UniProtKB/TrEMBL annotation:
Keyword Methyltransferase assigned: yes
Biological classification of the source: Bacteria, Bacillati, Actinomycetota, Actinomycetes, Micrococcales
The name this protein goes by in its record: Methyltransferase domain-containing protein
Keyword presence, Cell division: no
MF (Gene Ontology): methyltransferase activity
C-alpha cells in the first residue's frame, strides 16, 4: 500500500508545475472550492467560533488552492495546516505568499493522527478535504474518515469535496467525455503529465458513490450530513458534503 501511495505521489510531483494552470482552465473549479470553504466556515461560526480565528485542517491541500479558499472564507488570521503526500505539490504551495498562521506538512492522510499530535495542541475547529478520499485505498477510507472526525473538536464540522459519479450513468458519461475530450488533450498541450489525468478519470469512476460516503460518515459518528452539487458541467458530478462531529 505504501509503495502504491509513493508511486501516486510521484505522478502528482510530475504534474505539480502545471496543476494551477490546468485548474484555471476548468470552468467552476475555483468557485466550487470557495463555495465549499464558505459553507464550512459559516457552519463553524454558527457553532461558536465567531469572534476568534478558527483552526482548520486542509487535507490533500495540493498546491494550496484549497488553502487560499479557506483563508478567503475564514480570514487571513485563520490557522491552517495543509497536508499532502506530494512533495512537488507542496513545493508549489510553499512558494506562494501566506500569512503566519499557515503551514504545510508532507504526509499521507492515513498518518493524520500522528501528524496532529505534532502540529496542533488539540483538535481543530474544522477540516476541509478536496479530492482526497478517492486517492485513499477503499479498504482504508473508513479509517481516514474516522481519523478526520477525531481531529475535529466536538461540535466542529468537516467539508469533503470530490467527484462522485458511481451509479449515475449520465454523470459517468459526461465525466468520461470531459476527461478524454478536454482534460487529457490540454494536459498534453501544456506538458502537464497526462498520466495523472488518466488516473484521475479512472479514480473518479471507482470513487465512492454519495450513498457510500454517507455511510462512512455515519459509521464514523458524524451527524447533520448535507450534500450539494456544483453548477455548470459539474452538476451531478462534483459534490460537497458537510457533516458535524456531535458536541
Amino acid at each position: 500500500m505504501r509503495a502504491a501511495a509513493t508511486q501516486l505521489a510521484e505522478q502528482f510531483d510530475r504534474a505539480a508545475d502545471r496543476y494551477d494552470l490546468l485548474t484555471r482552465l476548468n470552468p467552476g473549479y475555483h468557485r466550487a472550492l470557495r463555495d465549499a470553504a464558505r459553507g464550512l466556515v459559516d457552519r463553524l461560526r454558527g457553532a461558536g467560533t465567531s469572534g476568534r480565528p478558527p483552526t482548520l485542517w486542509d487535507l490533500g491541500c495540493g498546491s494550496g488552492l484549497s488553502t487560499e479558499a479557506l483563508l478567503q472564507a475564514a480570514g487571513q488570521d485563520a490557522r491552517v495546516v495543509g497536508l499532502d503526500a506530494s512533495e512537488g505539490m507542496l513545493a508549489q504551495a510553499r512558494a506562494k505568499d501566506w500569512p503566519d498562521g499557515v503551514r504545510f506538512v508532507h504526509a499521507v492522510a492515513q498518518d493524520l493522527p500522528e501528524v496532529a499530535a505534532r502540529e496542533l495542541d488539540g483538535p481543530a475547529d474544522g477540516a476541509f478535504a478536496a479530492y482526497l478520499l478517492r486517492n485513499v485505498p477503499e479498504d482504508q477510507r473508513d479509517d481516514v474518515v474516522r481519523a478526520i472526525g477525531e481531529q475535529v473538536r466536538p461540535g466542529g464540522w468537516v467539508a469533503l469535496q470530490d467527484y462522485h459519479v458511481k451509479g449515475d450513468r449520465v454523470a459517468g458519461a459526461v465525466w468520461t467525455l470531459v476527461c478524454w475530450g478536454v482534460v487529457m488533450p490540454l494536459a498534453v498541450v501544456v506538458r502537464g503529465n497526462p498520466t495523472i489525468y488518466r488516473y484521475l478519470w479512472r479514480s473518479v469512476l471507482d470513487n465512492d458513490s454519495t450513498a457510500e460516503l454517507t455511510g462512512r460518515l455515519t459509521r464514523a459518528g458524524f451527524t447533520d450530513v448535507a450534500w450539494s452539487t456544483a453548477g455548470g458541467w459539474q452538476r451531478g458530478i462534483l459534490h460537497t458534503v458537510l457533516a458535524r462531529r456531535p458536541g
